[in-house]
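User: My instructor asked us to take a sequence, write out its structure as tokens, and then describe one feature of it. I'm not sure where to start. Here is the sequence I was given:
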Amino acid sequence: MDRSLTGLRVLDLSRVLAGPWATQNLADLGAEVIKVERPGLGDDTRAWGPPFVKDADGRDTFDSTYFVSANRGKKSVTIDFSNPEGQEIIRALAAECDILVENFRTGTLARYGLDHASLAQVNPRLIYCSITGFGQDGPYAGLPGYDFVLQGMSGLMDMTGNPDDQPGGGPMKVGIAIGDILTGTFATSAILAAVEQRHRTGRGQHIDMSLLDCVVSLTSYQALNYLIGDRMPRRLGNAHPNIVPYQVFRCAEGNLILAIGNQSQYEKFCNAIGRGDLVSDPRFATGAGRIENRDDLIPQLESEMMKRTMLEWIDFLEPHGVPCGPIYRMDQVFEDPQVKHRQMKVSVPHSTGGDIPNVASPYRLSDSPVRYDHAAPTLGQHTDDVLGRVLNYDAAALKALRDRSVL
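Assistant: Let's start with the prediction itself. The structure tokens for your sequence are:
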């Protein structure tokens, strides 16, 4: 069965995480993704271990688990495009591709004649997606962009973490490179929008994706609390600025997430735990009142939550329609019955022999489902296949290019 993007070919000049995440999404959906890497070195993240993927004999390979997390389903081709011959190969591949994704610093590829303006002359239908820290223009356009720095600049870190007057208080980054993942996901959407536009116009276009833009957009309702309500976001730990009670509570054993999102749920919760007085109390009778009087309400709930264990609370509250849940360690995530049912852990064939585990794509399409044909490629695994099939290079031409260190 064809997948949704079968027939689209992507030239992937990106590395590390944001760009590779976007192109992995495209590969999952069926596009042919040709990942161009430096001969002998490859994507920086291949070396970001341990841990490393093990071969069929249990020995470490040269590929980190970080690398395989973002490069599933791609074909690896090694080309040195700092070499003029390598640049010609990239131009020839671009002429045969629908989409190009790159995340070099602004202006870098123009030095090689591989920028959008140059390649649009080679292939006017090419959809060219540039991913940078700060975008293609503005006072910071030439600066490198790092997820950690951009989490700070966007305001995300200032609203994440415990208050300054609590133990461990202070700004805190998210536990994954959320800016990279988010930008890669936004880039996927933008690329598919450009594909749809090309159906109507026959032309490709340039997509300018900025990590800073994407992480600023992530601040969403917190930003609007400030822009409209003139309320500066403050760190609340695991609490919510606009909903109370919506946070983590310590139990007799373990910790519980209580996610009460509306008045009905609040009333069900209070009545279930025998605290109807917290509904009738005028301080807590409305959502706005609970926000204003958070410091009076939460200590009363904290004492109530210590009366049962986390598992006892979940068993008790769920039948009452009160949203709640546990905080899992990673080993518990993949043992959860729902996670198992949704098959979020998949085994994917790897070229070194055997299968390796991957986290499944969240895309669920009824008529064109995601398939997991192969894991992240080894360095240069598909060079001969791609250049032979797409550009008609024969064995002698490939050998000559290798002899000149172009491949």
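For the description part of your assignment, you could build on this observation: The chain has a mean pLDDT of 95. Try explaining in your own words what that tells you about the chain.
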